[in-house]
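Record type: ASSEMBLY
Status: queued
Input:
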Amino acid sequence: MRDLKNLYRQIIMDHYKNPRHKGLTSEEGYIKEHIKNPSCGDDITIQSKIEDNTVKDIRHEGTGCSICCSSASVLATLLKDKSVAEAQTFTRNYINMITNQSYDKNFDFEDAIAYQGVKDFPARTKCATIAWLAFEQTLKKQVK
Amino acid sequence: MLKANIKNDFPVFQNNDLVYLDSAASALTPKPVIEALKEYYTDYSVNVHRGVYRLSYQATKKYEEARQTIADHIGATFAETIFTRGASSALNLVASSYGMSNLKPGDEIIVSELEHHSHLLPWQQVAKKTGAKLVFVPLTKAGRITVENFKKVLNDHTKMVALTHVSNVMGYQTPIEEIIRLAHEKNALVSVDAAQSVPHQSVDVKAMDCDFLSFSGHKMCGPTGIGVLYGKKALLDAMEPIEFGGDMNDYVDKQTAHFKDTPYKFETGTPPIAQALGLAEAFRYLDAIGFDDIKAHEKALLNKTIEALNNIEGVVVYNPSAETAIIAFNLNDVHPHDAVSFFDEDQIALRAGHHCAQTVIQFLGVPATLRAAFYIYNTEADVERFIKNVKEAIAFFKAAGF
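Status: finished
Output:
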């Protein structure tokens, strides 16, 4: 059996086919980060809005594979309304889990756990992390 | 017909049940080339052009013999065969040296959307710095460069034509000889990116009458880290070096230096010695197989693959009329990066992305494509396994909800 079957789990396909929080806004108070993966053409823009030390909103737009696009939707769904500190911890743990670096094994990744299989596809880790890296940059830009 | 056991020449197949379809990026390395590299590091392993001792003399002799072998294979002379880091460096050398010094506002440079980034970006820079204008050959609907369309952009302002011989995404062969003839009528020079042609067909620079021609070692079973720039002697004589330092000069004082003649004035620093020996060996290896047979072999695999793909629902092929064995395609509704992982599971190596040629991808109007490129070691069994996986991939992604 192909390992790939384990990769394309229902959560990933659901967010790929029905992305949440998709589309950028021109409203004020959003910080934007655009990341391109030049090797495959993934192209993601993340906007986040931080107020009262809380992630009030996350928007995303771009093109890419199912892993890339769905992960942007999952990110926006999970981290909205979390505190900045929670969002930062979540993001770092997620990126480290995917890229085989040390992370908190007891961390509750909620639906994002669907992406843990990506670490077995080293050529695809960029796809699963590009939106999260962009989000992390938006946090860095506004949280000093 | 190629010999049936050609895969045995390539050690990488010993430990991998691999269907390698990414030869347009890099070809695999056969034993004789590996042996040539090993011979250098084992038997000489010293610098060239410097030592007065016997071993250095021997290394220098081997290195320069390699240059002559390569020159002979492309119909060039020794002085016209410059070693570079790869095709990219060779193409850049033409733009940085000839382009930057000779182009001026009002001049036009003809390029195409089929160019690899390494043949587009250097001329973008020349245009930016010199004020010359970058002009694109309009592609046909199928994405081809034709003589007819070339004539539409060729005019008295054209000073440089920089075109690919074979597109690395579409596999189309440019009618380069006729284009060169027309360009020369307007006194324009032509730089040919032959990275995708020299590995697969016999190329004679004198018959082609190109002014510059560039290719890489690693796409033709040779080592990485070496490429070749051919240039007409008179042009090279008049061109300035773009890198300065050891080995490229013959006299240096505090304020000035005098440079060696071509090819040496373009080759500062310790050259890719082992790589030159390896590349010469790659030419001998391919020549022994024979370029007519290589072409016929690739064409047969291409035809078989295209015919099979045409009978599968859910695949789009962007270049069904390509004359060389490069297929740009996608599975309907499946991003190429998703698809490529499926093939990878069965050790089928495909390329997914924009293939360092974003203007082609923009022309096609898709985010990216898959690419299958065939070479001497591919077999009919490879085609069958590839086609089987295409069918399985379509079913798999459909079931997954794509």
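Annotation: The mean pLDDT of chain B is 96.
Annotation: The domain at 290-400 of chain B is CATH 3.90.1150.10 (Aspartate Aminotransferase, domain 1).
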